[in-house]
Amino acid sequence: MENIFKKWMENPISKIVLATNLVFALLFIVSIPSFVREYITQDAVSIGGKKYDLSDVKETSPIAYSKFQSEYKALIKNTLGEFAQDKLFELIAKDKNIKPSEVLTQGFTPREPSEEDIMNVYVSNKDQLGGKSLNETKDKIIGFLKNQQEQEHSRNVYRDIVTKYPVEFLIKEAEAVRVTVEEKNNPSIGPKDAKITIVEFSDFECPFCKRSQDVNQKLREKYKGQIRWVFRDFPLPFHQDAMYAHMAANCTISEGKYWDVFNILFENSGNLAKANVDALIVKAGMPKDKYQACMKNASNLKAEIDADIQDGQKVGVSGTPAFFINGIFISGALPFENFDEIIQKELKQ
User: Fold this and answer.
1) CATH top-level class of 188-348
2) How far apart are CA 61 and CA 48, in angstroms?
3) Residues 205, 207, 208, 211, CA torsion sign
4) How far apart are CA 303 and CA 227, in angstroms?
5) What is the per-residue pLDDT for 69?
6) By CB neighbour count within 10 A (0-12 exposed, 13-18 middle, 19+ buried), where does 230 fall?
7) Of 90, 212, 252, 284, which is least packed with CB atoms within 10 Å of its CB?
8) Membrane-spanning residues where (predicted)?
9) How distant, in Å, are the alpha carbons of 19, 179, 251, 263 from that of 15?
């Protein structure tokens, strides 16, 4: 409630924009993810008189081609989504003899928020109100609450619309682009003969990497015994504490403490100063003397991490987190469903 109210206070959204955003969100929920690539060889570039097309990109830079597929699929989906929205509103407007712009709001009359509702919003967002009193902000709070009522009404109306006129995106499925990603004896979870191998390039200091760990854990739980998860170091150069944290974590592998340290470092990713990392390593159960002895071999530790970075860059990794599901590239802290869809398909092969 706090973040929603703050954003609404900073930039109140018009009814039309609200309705449009709502429609797109619901359209995508009921859609089938897929991809059209009918004429990719028609688009080309000529270099020194020699013509190159997207098939050449696919052969020489599979990750760049994979990104192209994802972005193109999203563009096609957005374009068809806009068209579908307009058509749905036209159909309903014709049935009800109203304007398309009235479809989501027809029959809506906001009720006056209760004093209790108003007070709850005020108390929850007091820090964002710049010290203003309830009386000074009451009108804006009422507007916010009525706006929420309208959004809820629009959601209900749209659910009825897609029940009457189902929306399904019929877009050709993309060909999976795979690259070979070596494991090189890096820490892993899961059986070596698992049908699915996921190689993760990540950074203990990266907030997006930390965010992705919840999804990663859910995937390992759902597909326990079917997934082998490999972690490779990719500390980013602008994260000044990341390299030391990765070196420290690698010192715990021989003692079987790596995954305990892995979890505790991500839990503390906003505070990875050397002293704190040292304390966290010992707290995780790593013998202090063995840890200190290992960290004296800083050059060897760094060389191994640099090798991970170089291997990642060779297969197109430029940021974190980056994942390869049986060689299929996924970039960023994406929702569970993005990974789950690929894994399901891989298990069926």
Assistant:
1) alpha beta
2) 20
3) positive
4) 28
5) 84
6) buried
7) 90
8) 16-36
9) 6, 46, 57, 44
Find, among 194, 173, 179, the residue nearest to 329 by Cα. 179
What angle is formed at CA 24 by the lines to CA 19 and CA 26, rounded to 5 degrees? 95
φ/ψ (deg, to 5) at 239: -95, 95
Quote the CA–CA distance of 303 and 285 in Å, as a whole number. Answer: 25
pLDDT-derived band at 1 (thresholds 50, 70, 90) equals low
What is the CA 14 to chain-centroid distance, rounded?
A: 27
Residues with Cβ within 8 Å of 86's Cβ and at least 6 positions away in sequence, in order, are: 100
- What tokens appear for 299 in the block? 């050059």
Furthest CA-CA distance within the chain: 80
User: What's the confidence (pLDDT) of residue 190?
Assistant: 95
CA dist., res. 61 & res. 323, Å (int): 17
Domain(s) labelled CATH 3.40.30.10 in the chain stretch across: 188-348
Amino acid at 232: R
Q: Across the chain, what does the average pLDDT equal?
A: 88
| DSSP conformational letter for 41 | G
- Cα–Cα distance between 44 and 52 in angstroms, integer? 5
Question: How many whole angstroms separate alpha carbon 323 and alpha carbon 326?
Answer: 9
pTM beyond 0.70: the answer is no
- Compute the distance between CA of residue 301 and CA of residue 254 in angstroms, rounded to an integer: 13
Secondary structure (DSSP) of 323-337:
EEETTEEEESS--HH
Beta partners for 324? 199, 329
Contacts of 151 (CB under 8 A, 6+ apart): 18, 22
What the block records as the tokens of 208 is: 């997006």
